[in-house]
Amino acid sequence: MHAEVPTIKVEMSFGDDASTVVRIGSGNPPDLFRVFPGNGSALSMVQLVNAGRLADLSDQSWVKRIPPSLTPVLKVNNKAYFFTPTQAVIGAVYNKQVFESLKLTVPHTWSQLMTLCDTAKKAGVPAFALGAKDSWVGQLIDYALVPSLVYSNTPDFDKLQAGGTATFSSSGWKEALNKYKMMLDRGCFNENPLGTGFEQQAKLVATGKTVAAVQLSLLVPRIQTDNPTATLGMFALPGGDRASQLRVPVAPSSGIGVSAQSKNLTEARLFIAFMAQQTSINRYAELSGDLPIFSGGSVKINPLLSGILPFVRAGKVNLFMDQSWPNADVQQAHLAGVQQLLSGQASATDVLKKMDDAYQKR
Amino acid sequence: MRRHRYGLSQALLEAVMVLVTVVFAAPLYLLLVFAVRHRGDLETSAWAFPTHFDLSNFSTAWTSASLGPALLNSTLVTVVSGALVIGIGSMAAYYLARSKTRLSYGLYLLFLGGLIVPFQLGLVPLYQGMRDLNLLGTPLSLIIFYLGNLMPFTVFLYAGFLRALPPSYEEAARIDGASHLQAYVFVAFPLLRPVTGTVLILNAIGTWNDFFTPMLYTGGTKSQTLPVAIYAFVGQYSAQWELVFAGLLIAILPILIVYFLLQRSIIQGFASGVKG
Amino acid sequence: MSDLPHPKVAMQSTRILKKRRVAGVPWYFLAPALLAYILVVVYPIVAGGSYAFTDWNGLNPVKTFVGLENFRRLLQDDQALSSLKNTVLITLSVTLVQNTLGLLLALGANSTIRTRFLLRTVLFAPAVISSLVAAYLWQYLYDPNVEGGINALLTDVGLKSLRQDWLGNPQLALFAITGTVVWQYTGYSMVIFLAGLQGVPVELYEAAELDGAGAWQSFWNVTRPMIAPAITVNLMLSVIGGFKLFDQILAMTGGGPGYATSTLSLLMYKQAFVFSRFGYSTATALVLAIIIAGVSLLQLKLLRSQELEG
């Protein structure tokens, strides 16, 4: 980077999102805090920018590197307000040893996926561990299916929805949720998915009690703690019947923003600039197992992602859906709705209707 | 109920009671058993009594979660706020119990209101106040918080007890020439010992275990209390149950010890409180 | 609400005597406590409560006054209604189970069984530990995948068919949380009942026995009226506690699965910190406070009358 960087003391403070909101709202924000890309939650970039809580970082050199595909979730009015070093990927993380011992092959279509489920089930090892007790886990399955079922034939779905001509209920979302339910009914998942949390999900894969789990790549370190000898891979979860439909959800992970009211603006901005250096990005990517946000320099991409990279290079990727939603209610309706779908309390139609209603909310 | 012979019915009752108690104690037993297990030991049944006691989980939990400083902070906050609230709370209750005016009854109801209203309503203004006074990240912020929030309960218990206590004792002292303060400290307050015991332990439990406010005021700082440290610890190690349970055990041990030492006085305090 | 046992006449003469005696307790006895309470509790609650009449979103420094808009929306919010239902349900189940069990245990501990002091101590112990710790502990027990959980235990003793998805089944989850709360506070109820029971003179039981009363009649006609204050205290504490339950629910289910365990206190939390509707959340808090106050007053009236009539 530039010549000398002064020594800055960085004090880390721990708090959950709730206490961060209180700190920001009462005018005592941390200098740097976690920001989510796009919109859709209290600490998302759009919400924070609308409340005037984030400092404008547009004059930093890394901002020019943001590709147009990521601009909707990384910039507001063409200005950058936060930095994230990585992109996260959602796919089916699988245990290669178990895979081979059951003579399974990577599926590229929905029917192949169903075959995989059946074979695994017959062998007494359910295909996917589902930790739906933690609501953010439950949504990952439909997040994985929706790109193939919605965006492959309607690439500008988000724009249409914002304009009012498309709804969840009348789109491929319905097929996605129904297929999700089908997976449950067909025995693709472990028993009691709603009583199983994220940690248990990792344990199930680590101990070979299930073949795989649909998750973010951050699952990998957890599995490896429990079972250091496991070799893991990731495949894209197919939703449609044509292999060409297959698209993968890849999106920027949460990052750091600078408080607009910070009393240490210079130092905080220097910190961001440091994080945005390619060497920092690469190091972060290696540690977290995710994809670096900008490519360059030498980086050891997580071998797990080798199955996904072709999709990234071909542009067959979609951002996580909630990052484009106008408020936090849609996501809540989605999360709760998925749980209700799994427990049989609601049908796909009910859930999507609630999501549509929430989309309209101010 | 029947106080004469220890016959068959008594023996049966005893057996049932012991069984129920064992069921209640079982989760705590599990906590203990897991905490001393060697990590990764999936072979033996979880409920079996451990053959060897591995204390490494405790030391790992202690250091990873920085439980030492957290324990000191919790102790400081609990003891100071507990002592202060008893001192000034009991005096206030004395005033309210002895004074029969409409105003004092109204003030008494004001204190009681604090028992019902959820404290979250005042969350943000109080936080802003602490910030403006530069108290955030210090134990003092918590001491002040508990001083105010424990007041309703303290006043409620003391006032109830004091109402049943005839004023003749203090009045005798006053006639002998003692000031109000002397009469209170040397005559009335000692008579309140059962209730003081109850208030002390109940307030201590509440303060020691409180989580949300300490998280907000001291989370991540060196003044953080035990529950906050535990919360971060569990979040980090969530499926490593042996570690988690070791941490949880450390968190509850101090308060349990104090409880076992003072439990007679708690129960006696309840007895007098309920009659009054 | 003063319930001095002295007859009216004695009270009046005491009052007259008092007036002739030394002056009343000085104001400085009250001042420090009142000051602390007003600064830390009253003023912030009033100030915070005022947010209920704004559309503040928790992040924006600007708060616009919107009058009763939040309350209007609350009445039409079906999530709020279902949360209210869950709140009432969990309060009722906790109160019922905890107090019945507490009473039975108190009756047992009030006998001459040899282990009663030890049992009493052990049964009260869970009330001493933090709700968060209790929640984490029970979350483990309810986990269907772990080797030390309830399901694992049921399998070990051959009762495989009784296994449930305790926290994952929307019909069971609320009651599973009830179990945790009951585990924590039954000892508390027991101790309060015990205190009441120990005030019942033995002669009354003996007299009842001589009159030929059975165990139930003895309980209903002798014990129950004498422990009426204990019943009042216990029921009131359970109900208020039930309405305010938060830590355990947040830690064990976060309000799920779906909305099955979402109560008003959880709704308040989500409104403020997830939906950025701080003003709306405060309105919910105010409504909850009013409900608790109303229910408490009603309860107090009903229970006091059973105390007097007994």
- The SSE order of chain C reads HHHHHHHHHHHHHH
Helix/strand order of chain B: HHHHHHHHHHHHH
Shape of chain B: globular
Question: Based on helices, strands and strand pairing, what is the structural class of chain C?
Answer: mainly alpha
pLDDT < 50 runs, ≥5 residues of chain C: 16-22
Main sheet overview of chain C? none
The CATH C-level class name of chain C: Mainly Alpha
Per CATH, what is the topology of chain C? MetI-like fold
CA radius of gyration of chain C is: 24 Å
What overall form of chain C do the CA principal axes indicate? globular
Helix tally of chain B equals 13
The value of Rg of chain B in angstroms is 23 Å
Mean pLDDT of chain C: 84
The CATH topology of the largest domain in chain B comes to MetI-like fold
Q: Return the average pLDDT of chain B rounded to an integer.
A: 83
Summarize the structure.
The complex is a heterotrimer of chains A (362), B (276) and C (310). Chain A has 362 residues and is α+β, with helices and mostly antiparallel strands.
Task: Describe the protein's architecture and organization.
The complex is a heterotrimer of chains A (362), B (276) and C (310). Chain A is of the alpha+beta class and 362 residues long. Chain A is 41% helix and 12% strand. Chain A has helices at 17-25, 45-50, 71-74, 96-101, 110-122, 135-151, 157-163, 173-185, 198-206, 219-226, 265-275, 278-288, 309-313, 328-343, 348-360, and strands at residues 32-35, 75-76, 79-80, 82-83, 86-95, 128-129, 212-216, 232-235, 248-252, 255-258, 291-292, 317-318. The model of chain A has no long low-confidence stretch (mean pLDDT 88). Chain B has 276 residues and is mostly helical. Chain B starts with 7 loop residues before the first helix and ends with a helix. Chain B has helices at residues 8-35, 56-64, 67-98, 102-116, 123-132, 139-149, 151-164, 168-175, 180-191, 193-209, 212-218, 226-237, 241-275. Chain C is mainly alpha-helical and 310 residues long. Chain C has a single domain (78-309), classed as MetI-like (MetI-like fold, Orthogonal Bundle). Chain C has helices at 8-20, 31-49, 69-76, 78-109, 116-124, 131-142, 150-156, 173-197, 202-210, 215-226, 228-244, 247-252, 264-273, 278-309. Chains in contact: A-B, A-C, B-C. At the B-C interface, helix 1, helix 3, helix 4, helix 5 and helix 6 of B face helix 2, helix 4, helix 5, helix 6 and helix 7 of C.
